[in-house]
Amino acid sequence: MAPSFGSKIVLIIGAERGIGRGASIKLAKLGATLALTDINEASLDKTCNLCTSTNHHYTSAFDVGSTEKCNEYVSVIISKYNGIDHIFNCIGINGVYQSTVDVTDAHWDKMFNTNAKGFLNITRACIPYLKSGAPLENPISAFGISPVASFAAYCATNAAVIGFSMNMALELGPRGIRTNIIVSKAMRAPTNVQRGDFVVDRGAEDITDVVAFLFSDESRYMNGSAVKLQAAFCENNIKGLDPAF
User: Fold this and answer.
1) Where are the transmembrane segments (predicted)?
2) Among 87, 119, 160, 186, which lies 20 to 30 A Cα-Cα from 224?
3) 214 in a domain, yes or no?
């Protein structure tokens, strides 16, 4: 039996496409009221239009690397809904395949500002308003636990999110707030369209049942868990990638 999210307020960060869009559509079908955000307003509106339900969903386009914008976003959500039940932090931009000696300060800072600081900004702003039993889910790339050569910045940001998520599990656990990680290899998505040599033919719709499960009471004893979705992987020819993962 599918879980029900009627009357639940779910924040989905990174909702314009891929896993974020898939999670939005799935949770809307299960009755959730969604607060969607990403940086691209047109794509975000498309996601909202795909979320068929009787609920009125809220969208806001901004850069999660901005502390001020994240604080403003959460303030609006609280004023509209008076609380937050679930957070899906699907935050991240793709890395660049390059030698570490070629990594510029600008690229490194851009990656960390979005892929790592974005998690901090949203989570920090939400913590005072999280209800007891409000689960957080942080999807990351498997490169955070199984790094590859010549993706230094991308691997480092995903590893940072793992550490941050484990800390949240310990820090918020006593309040009944669970934090779990979804770990996947590259999937079929617009951001991976040029990476066909290592993207398995699996899309966001293939993992949304896991997203719903981790938000449901059925996963109430899962906190600080890293759920590996290893089917999202196939043979590739990227130098340095470990095919054993």
Assistant:
1) none
2) 186
3) yes
> Where do we find the tokens 């979005």?
114
206: domain CATH number is: 3.40.50.720
Residue 150 lies in a domain: yes
133 CB-near residues (< 8 Å, 6+ apart):
176, 177, 178, 220
SS3 226: strand
DSSP H or E stretch at residue 157: helix 152-172
CB of 149 closer than 8 Å to CB of 238: no
Which residue bears the tokens 């942080």? Answer: 138
Reply yes or no on whether the pLDDT at 27 is more than 90: yes
8-state DSSP, 121? H
DSSP state letters, 20-82: HHHHHHHHHHTT-EEEEEES-HHHHHHHHHH--SSS--EEEE--TT-HHHHHHHHHHHHHHHS
d(CA 161, CA 112): 10
Residue 100 lies in a domain: yes
- From the number of C-beta atoms within 10 Å of its C-beta (0-12, 13-18, 19+), residue 74 rates as buried
Q: How far is CA 173 from CA 11, 137, 140, 181, in A?
A: 19, 14, 21, 15
Cα(72)–Cα(53) distance, rounded to whole angstroms?
26
> Quick one: CA torsion of 116, 122, 125, 131, rounded to 10 degrees?
-120
Per-residue pLDDT tens over the stretch 181-224: 999 876 544 444 444 444 444 566 778 999 999 999 999 999 99
Indicate the pTM of the whole model.
0.86
CA dist 238 and 228 (Å) reads: 21
